[in-house]
């Protein structure tokens, strides 16, 4: 596997082949990414080469990171469960794929993958600290199949948030009934389907307010709000200020 020395405290392994011969950080933990559908990652509290090499017949991505470094970034203890798998949110999956599938020449590809590795680790730890990581094994009341369908619903929201999605459409697309989706989604992600959709749309709207000069009303419409009043109300509830004030404060800063 290709080894990228991100820092003395972090090693990224990407590609195929054996892992032996690469320098590991002191007292490491490992994040092992699985690009199935849905994508997940497994946390290893005390990683071992023989365990991590079990899937060496496919292109892979593994982070080996000093526990101390993770806990500095977290600002507290790293309490992910050893051997547990967690669903990888769509935005983090995109970063992981950018590392795995990078086709840039070595001179550009190595620093690119290094930077993306830091970005992905920070996003993972931030999500862990905020309780936003959903375990890939659900409660006894939920089958593994239903859990995967609920994860697929979350990915559909993250990928198709611009469309006019309804609970019924999402449920049909993922092969699950509405009530089971509603209940399971709340248990898994600690929010409702509509709240997740709204959060995704408002996050994109906030980005566009800062990074573009598009009219506020057009940004609202592009992000699923049929009129400026409904967009302003929803944005105000989420960010505590109107879209115009949010943009003005960002520009002033």
TrEMBL record:
What protein name is recorded for this chain?
Answer: AraC family transcriptional regulator
Q: Which residues form the HTH araC/xylS-type domain?
A: 151-249
Spell out the Pfam families in the cross-references.
HTH_18
* Listed InterPro entries: Homeodomain-like_sf, HTH_AraC, PchR_regulatory_protein
The protein's UniProt keywords, in alphabetical order, are: Transcription, Transcription regulation
Indicate whether Transcription regulation appears among the record's keywords.
Answer: yes
Keyword match Transcription regulation: yes
């Amino acid at each position: 596997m290709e080894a990228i020395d991100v820092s003395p405290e972090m090693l990224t392994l990407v590609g195929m082949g054996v892992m032996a011969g690469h320098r590991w950080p002191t007292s490491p933990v490992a994040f092992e990414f699985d690009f199935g559908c849905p994508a997940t990652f497994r946390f290893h509290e005390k990683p071992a080469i023989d365990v991590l090499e079990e899937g060496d017949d496919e292109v892979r991505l593994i982070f080996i990171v000093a526990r101390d470094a993770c806990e500095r970034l977290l600002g507290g203890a790293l309490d992910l469960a050893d051997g547990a798998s967690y669903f990888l949110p769509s935005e983090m999956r995109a970063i992981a794929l950018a590392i795995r599938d990078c086709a840039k020449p070595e001179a550009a590809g190595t620093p690119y993958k290094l930077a993306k590795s830091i970005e992905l680790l920070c996003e993972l730890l931030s999500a862990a600290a905020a309780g936003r990581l959903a375990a890939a094994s659900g409660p006894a009341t939920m089958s593994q199949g239903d859990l995967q369908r609920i994860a697929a619903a979350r990915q559909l929201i993250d990928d198709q948030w611009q469309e006019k999605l309804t609970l019924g459409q999402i449920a049909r697309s993922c092969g699950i009934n509405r009530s089971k989706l509603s209940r399971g989604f709340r248990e898994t992600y600690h929010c409702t389907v509509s709240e997740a959709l709204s959060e995704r749309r408002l996050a994109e709207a906030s980005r566009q307010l800062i990074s573009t000069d598009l009219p506020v009303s057009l940004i609202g419409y592009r992000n699923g709000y049929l009129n400026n009043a409904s967009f302003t109300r929803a944005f105000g509830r989420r960010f505590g200020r109107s879209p115009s004030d949010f943009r003005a404060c960002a520009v002033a800063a």
